[in-house]
Design a protein that fits this description.
alpha/beta; 8-stranded mixed sheet
């Protein structure tokens, strides 16, 4: 698939197995999600633009580097919150916006209920994070909202994706890169990813 990257890493695969298991308790689910998100962030940040600076070592002056890119991480509430720490761990200067969206259980369409975004989004690299890409409805809604307020460079980072969700996102937003840990088999009749890992938000926060 064009503009789709599946991150291949043995630790990621191991930890994804922990997330999939029904008996994994909430605390372990949250910490494992944070670890996996760090691996995803490491891959996403490979393309960060750098600038050279002059630095002093104990022995001489040499060339160093600083990140020369405005990065905004935008979790889709509420499950996306579980991925934020993994990204700001590597890039503390990244700013964080929030988009509140949920999927209507009957229509499976996204409902937008909250938005708080940093300034300067027009010139930023915006990284949208959400553990699950199922129908793609919430992701499409979030990307549409971000473009409406001026975002030009958007990447979507997920952990578990359905083929249908990837297709739907790229049918509307072909310019958005999707980075995911795994592409699962399919969506079922209730629009849940199979084999999936259940409702990520419920498993992060201990709700049902």
């Amino acid at each position: 698939m064009k503009r789709v990257q599946v991150v291949d890493h043995p630790i990621l695969k191991r930890d994804l197995s922990v997330l999939r298991q029904t008996e994994t308790p909430y605390g372990l689910f949250r910490s494992t999600l944070r670890n996996i998100s760090s691996i995803m962030a490491y891959e996403v940040f490979r393309t960060l633009r750098l600038k050279q600076i002059e630095i002093d070592t104990p022995l001489e002056v040499t060339t160093g580097h600083l990140v020369d890119e405005n990065v905004i991480v935008v979790p889709i509430l509420r499950a996306g919150l579980g991925m934020v720490d993994g990204f700001v761990h590597f890039l503390p200067e990244a700013r964080v916006g929030h988009l509140g969206m949920y999927r209507d259980e009957h229509t499976h369409e996204p409902v937008d209920y909250y938005s708080k975004l940093p300034s300067g989004i027009e010139s930023a690299t915006v990284i949208v994070v959400d553990p699950m890409l199922a129908t793609g409805g919430s992701a499409c809604g979030a990307i549409r909202h971000l473009k409406k307020v001026g975002a030009r460079t958007i990447k979507l980072v997920t952990l578990v994706s359905a083929p249908e969700g990837i297709t739907n996102v790229h049918s509307v937003h072909p310019d958005v890169d999707i980075i995911t840990a795994v592409i699962d088999r399919e969506l079922d009749e209730n629009a849940y990813i199979r084999p999936g890992l259940g409702d990520a938000g419920d498993r992060i926060f201990g709700t049902s």
